[in-house]
Prior knowledge:
Largest sheet: 7 strands, mixed
Structural class: alpha/beta
Distance between the termini: 27 Å
CATH superfamily of the largest domain: Type I PLP-dependent aspartate aminotransferase-like (Major domain)
Bound molecules: ligand C6P
Number of helices: 14
Amino acid sequence: MAEEKTIAFDVESIREQFPTLSQQVYGKDLVYLDNGATSQKPKVVIDAIGHYYTLENSNIHRGVHFLSQQATEHYEHARKVIQQYINAPLEEEVLFTSGTTAGINLVAFSYGELLSEGDEIIISAMEHHSNIVPWQILCERKGCILKVIPMNEHGELMMDAYSNLLSHRTKLVAVTHISNTLGTINPVKEITRMAHEQGAVVLIDGAQSIQHMTVDVQELDCDFYAFSGHKVFGPTGVGILYGKKAILDKMPPYQGGGDMIEKVTFEKTTYNGLPHKFEAGTPNISGGIGLGVAFEFLSGLDMDEVEHYEKELATYAEKELLKLDGMRLIGTAKEKTSVVSFIVEGLHPFDIGTLLDKQGIAVRTGHHCTQPVMDFFKIPGTVRASFAFYNTMAEVDILVKGVERSINMLR
Length: 411
Ligand code: C6P
């Protein structure tokens, strides 16, 4: 079955570059299908982190000595690589954070300072908690009003309803590019265009998109774009917030400390320019360097091919899973990719996930930090298989057989 599929690129040679993938768990070949939670790392990224701690370890932006200057150069090189990758106009628009959550909180806190009572913020019904709770905290702090774009039973945003929610009171729209639970690809360019017509700024949660498709922040015209390093084949504890300079310039600092200042006296402190204004304290230096290497690795791939291939994987998985008795897919949007969420009638997702694990298949079960999505579908959780470009059609076959075996054991 697997051999019949078109494989757009050499998956086997890609897999060889990811050491984690070629191991056994419980005596079975690992089938890693939890890429939505975190992706595996290519050897070049692992080596870069090892190299940093073995030979380059020092603090950045501070030392006159060789090691510090070298580390600074490598860290700033990573920023440049990422700037080019996402096509940000300026290097200083690329802020290092600790991940998507940190990036969204930065905007909610700092841009939030510019908002007033009665201002409206729009999010969507399929957001991760990271793109809900920071806005709720802001609304409590400032008296802003949170509105939610509804979705239909396929897990597609209702654009007419969005249009009706927008008004001159809308100050910020924050939506996910791809849903981590449903796999829906949202029309973020159109969402952005419509928000801009009302003078609102737009934040795109890119946690589940940048690893699956070409992302060009100028083409999207978004004001902010946040993502995590660990989901894009880089290290944990590092991420990026892209922001337009004109907007970042107006925003107050989020945290105070070293590196973000120009001059400190007890009477008054003046702040450093971008990006340092938003990068207080010693950052995750090895993480930043490793993330730059991850993006160099990604630059060697054709992302259109990746997108096409991953869509094939997900479509094939859906088709085969639907042959199983009691199978219900959660998230059936026309535009979707890389994520297949499902439940099986009468069975708890956790039980299926546990039995899959014993067969060497790693999936995620539960609400995936999207409890409102579970409430919408009136389910306790799903089993989620989430793909990366190193997954194969043969692994999809193993997943489907594994689910079938689990169903038979539980029934
Ligand atoms: N979703 C998942 O298994 P952090 O934790 O900051 O790296 O990413 C948060 C986040 C924000 N938005 C979306 C759309 C996400 O999917 C995530 C992380 C993981 O689906 C872990 S909960």
